[in-house]
TrEMBL record:
<feature type="transmembrane region" description="Helical">
    <location>
        <begin position="26"/>
        <end position="49"/>
    </location>
</feature>
<feature type="transmembrane region" description="Helical">
    <location>
        <begin position="100"/>
        <end position="122"/>
    </location>
</feature>
<keyword id="KW-1133">Transmembrane helix</keyword>
<keyword id="KW-0472">Membrane</keyword>
<protein>
    <recommendedName>
        <fullName>DUF4271 domain-containing protein</fullName>
    </recommendedName>
</protein>
<feature type="transmembrane region" description="Helical">
    <location>
        <begin position="61"/>
        <end position="80"/>
    </location>
</feature>
<keyword id="KW-0812">Transmembrane</keyword>
Length: 125
């Protein structure tokens, strides 16, 4: 089980008692937000690196379009992966092995910190 699976199931377990009908949507949204913010951080890093190396790879419009398409792909991948039988099997494994102990506020703060770091890196380039 990957780190993203563990984070998904932590959100799933936390919100299951509070918002039972929207639990899967909230967990999928969080996972997509986290993955897309990490992808944005990587993209800004490599854009700055290529700019320093004077390598012209693609225009910024094409890069933002590619980022948008990848985010849409990530959302649908997560939606398909965590809405079916695989989610039930992995959820049973998580519940059987251990209870996850993460602070939910720190997990919600993680994408915000990553986006802040991305902004700082973007300003540095």
């Amino acid at each position: 089980m990957s780190t993203f699976d563990a984070l998904f199931f932590h959100f799933f377990q936390y919100y299951k008692s509070k918002k039972s009908k929207k639990t899967n949507s909230i967990a999928t949204f969080y996972l997509t937000l986290l993955q897309s913010s990490l992808l944005l951080l990587l993209g800004v890093f490599f854009a700055g690196f290529f700019k320093q190396m004077h390598v012209q790879t693609m225009s910024s419009v094409k890069a933002w379009t590619l980022f948008g398409l990848v985010v849409i792909f990530l959302y649908f991948k997560n939606w398909i992966q965590y809405s079916g039988k695989k989610r039930k099997v992995l959820n049973a494994k998580v519940l059987k092995n251990r209870k996850l102990h993460y602070n939910i506020w720190l997990l919600w703060l993680l994408p915000v910190v990553i986006l802040g770091l991305t902004y700082v890196l973007y300003q540095a380039t």
